[in-house]
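Budget justification note: compute hours in this period were largely spent on complex prediction jobs such as the one shown. Inputs:
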Amino acid sequence: MTSSAGLLKREDGKKTGKGEQTRAQILETALDLFRERGYEETTMRAIAESAGVSVGNAYYYFKSKEHLIQAFYARTHEEHLAASREVLLRERGLRERLLGVMRAKLDTIAPYRQFSGVLFKTAADPASPLNPFSVESQPVRQQSTDLFAEVITGGDTRLTPDLVAALPNLLWVYHMGIILYWIHDNSPGCAKSYRMMERSVRLVLRLISLFQFPLLRPFLKELLVLVTELRVDEMPVPLPPPGVE
Amino acid sequence: MTSSAGLLKREDGKKTGKGEQTRAQILETALDLFRERGYEETTMRAIAESAGVSVGNAYYYFKSKEHLIQAFYARTHEEHLAASREVLLRERGLRERLLGVMRAKLDTIAPYRQFSGVLFKTAADPASPLNPFSVESQPVRQQSTDLFAEVITGGDTRLTPDLVAALPNLLWVYHMGIILYWIHDNSPGCAKSYRMMERSVRLVLRLISLFQFPLLRPFLKELLVLVTELRVDEMPVPLPPPGVE
DNA sequence: TCCTCTATTTGAACGCGTTCAAATAGAGCG
DNA sequence: CGCTCTATTTGAACGCGTTCAAATAGAGGA
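Corresponding output:
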């Protein structure tokens, strides 16, 4: 751990780097196979064989098959962030910004639609690290809500502080809903999802402008309380193993 | 036609009835074990052994371990309907009715909280028959939305037709959201969930009365379009490979 | 009574995800 | 060079959900 040496060290000085190569090899192979044959149909043995390693070795780098999904999710998440930044630099109108970010989301995950179902399934498990509310995904979730915060604050539309406070989380939930719809959408090119997304964005924007009226302040206050309580950071994390209740 | 011993032929002349007994035995045993040890920890072999049958026999009656969850779900669903009917007979105020139905829901599933997570996980899988949007669960879903329809139409509060049309589905989604929160709620007695439920019910009611204003008619129209499109009946169902049951 | 046909029941076997004790590789050091 | 320590790699083995060919039970007909 101290210092130096050999052909393999990272400037980071942590691991030898050889492992990182193997790790990447396994992940690439896995994602390829997932996309080709689907998640359930791809066995760990097949992944290992295609990657030219042993099964045990795959498990040395990924604690479980699920953790491969997590890696996939992290990747598309990054892609979406990048695509969104582009949109947010270009567009100033709230409508264009939200629409662009949402469209970017669907575009990003499009190639993986069929096995995104599995991701959603796993994510729904409270015990899974993939769960959006788990500690492990806290950073990703944070980045997502930050993104929505940027959508509403970086544009040319001024909103009341209440809304600015509540909207990022609400929009995050909203975008999850759209993805849920998308996962079940078998229309060619997921056309229905895109249409649904556009319509709902319009509705969301109208709701936003509606709640700008000072008259509706009490609603916002109440909403804010709920959203605050929804904040997952304050939710105790389900601890798994011992004991029955 | 019917043999004198009685229990060997159904009126509909389909099955012998002996099987029904075995089926019930397996289901009861399974649910007991699930509640005691949890879902993942309960093996099909253990269920079969405890029920005094072979593994293969368990699979003769339940196509998969998942289908045991489905049976459980059907049961608590019935319980909730019963409890709700009681509430709806007693209460006339919209607030009391919605609150009562929601509370009944949480009360009904309370004993199974820890393994309800699994149910949710499975339900999130688009390919699962347990999925709320699947054909298999269409009847249950229908009954649920009918229940919410009864909540709003059977009380002493008159609502605009638009709202009456849109609300059942919206309330169904809302109640799913509460359950999602509940699943992640580790507070003693799920107190946070109950509080969240009460607060959100209050908010929902205020929103309902808000959208009674004729001024907000366009919103309702737009919402109605979305909700109609959300109707899962119109969503093409991902068909499972072989035959039906 | 015996035969037939269907409903039910069995348990071995399969393929999967996962684990683990043990083998190997390679760097630093003498 | 050999020694040591750690990172990496292996493949057999385990327990699981699930399948299936074959055995059994039981009712109705001859």
